[in-house]
Specification:
binds fe (ii) ion; single chain; mainly alpha
C-alpha cells in the first residue's frame, strides 16, 4: 500500500460520496454460499455478526464529537458516513436473521458484541472510543480494498452475497477518511491512536477467532482439519485476504499515515 511518510497537510478528501439505500433479497441464499467452502462462507458470516452493533458504535463515537466540527465539508461527510453505516447495519441485521434461520445463535453472538462495546463505552474515554472506531475503520477499509481490487475474493459466490459484500466494501472504502478526520479535529494524537490500535487489534481478532470456532461448531466442522486448511489458505495464501492486511496494519504506525493513502481504487 502506498503510504506517504510526509506529514499530511492537504485538506481531507470530502468529495461528497453517495449513500446507496440498497436492499438485498436473501431468500435464496444457501447455507454455504462461497465457492471456497463452508469455512470461508462462515468467515464472511462471522464478520457480518459484528456489523449491526459495531457500526452503531462507530456512529455514536463520531457523533460524540460531530457538534464540535467547524469544517462544513467534513460535517457533510460525517452525515453521509452516518447514512452509509446505517444502511449497512440494516442489511447486516437482515443477513444475521438469515444466519439465525440456519440455527446459528446470531442473537446471542450479536448480544456479546453489544455487551463488549457497552463496556468500552462506559469505561474508556470518548476520544479513545473514536480512536477505536478509526482502527476498526482501517480494518474495514483494508478488507474493502481487497474486495474491490481482487475479484477472486467473491468470484463464484452466490450473486446476492457477492453484491452485498461489494456494496459494503465500496462504501467502506469511500468513507475511510471520515472518522480519522474527526479524530484529528478532536485533537487525537498518533501515539494515542497507535496504542488504541494495538488494543483493538488484540480484542477484535480474538473475537473473530471465537466467532469462527462457534460458527464452524454449529456446522459440525469445528474439528475438520481440511476445512480449517482451506480457510487458512484462503485467508493467508490464495487470495490471501488477511495476509494483505499486515502491510496496511503496519502502515498505520508510520509517521504521517493517512487512510486516504490506501489507494488504487476508482470508486
Ligand atoms: Fe459499514
Ligand atoms: Fe465504515
Amino acid at each position: 500500500m502506498p503510504t506517504s511518510a510526509r506529514r499530511r497537510t492537504r485538506a481531507p478528501n470530502t468529495v461528497p460520496f453517495p449513500v446507496r439505500d440498497r436492499r438485498f433479497d436473501l431468500s435464496d441464499v444457501p447455507r454455504h454460499w462461497h465457492p471456497a467452502g463452508p469455512a470461508v462462507s462462515r468467515f464472511f458470516d462471522n464478520l457480518s455478526l459484528f456489523f449491526p452493533q459495531g457500526e452503531a458504535f462507530f456512529i455514536r463515537s463520531v457523533k460524540a464529537f460531530a457538534r464540535e466540527l467547524d469544517d462544513p465539508a467534513l460535517s457533510d461527510a460525517v452525515r453521509r458516513f452516518y447514512g452509509q453505516e446505517a444502511f449497512h447495519g440494516r442489511e447486516h441485521r437482515r443477513y444475521n436473521r438469515l444466519l439465525a434461520g440456519q440455527g446459528i445463535p446470531a442473537d446471542a453472538m450479536e448480544g456479546r458484541v453489544a455487551r463488549l462495546l457497552d463496556r468500552v463505552q462506559r469505561r474508556v474515554p470518548r476520544r479513545w472510543q473514536l480512536a477505536a472506531t478509526c482502527a476498526l475503520e482501517h480494518f474495514t477499509a483494508s478488507l474493502a480494498h481487497g474486495v474491490l481490487t481482487d475479484p477472486r475474493l467473491l468470484d463464484g459466490a452466490h450473486p446476492t452475497m457477492a453484491g452485498l459484500w461489494r456494496w459494503h466494501a465500496l462504501e467502506e472504502f469511500e468513507h475511510r477518511e471520515v472518522a480519522f478526520e474527526v479524530y484529528r479535529a478532536a485533537g487525537g494524537t498518533p501515539a494515542e491512536r497507535n496504542l488504541v490500535m494495538l488494543a483493538t487489534t488484540l480484542i477484535f481478532w480474538a473475537k473473530v477467532v471465537e466467532h469462527q470456532v462457534r460458527l464452524m461448531g454449529h456446522d459440525g466442522i469445528a474439528g475438520d482439519v481440511g476445512e480449517w486448511r482451506r480457510l487458512v489458505r484462503f485467508l493467508f495464501v490464495e487470495p490471501g485476504t488477511l495476509r494483505r492486511l499486515i502491510p496496511t496494519w503496519l502502515a498505520w504506525y508510520r509517521p504521517g499515515f493517512h487512510p486516504a493513502d490506501l489507494g488504487g481504487v476508482t470508486a
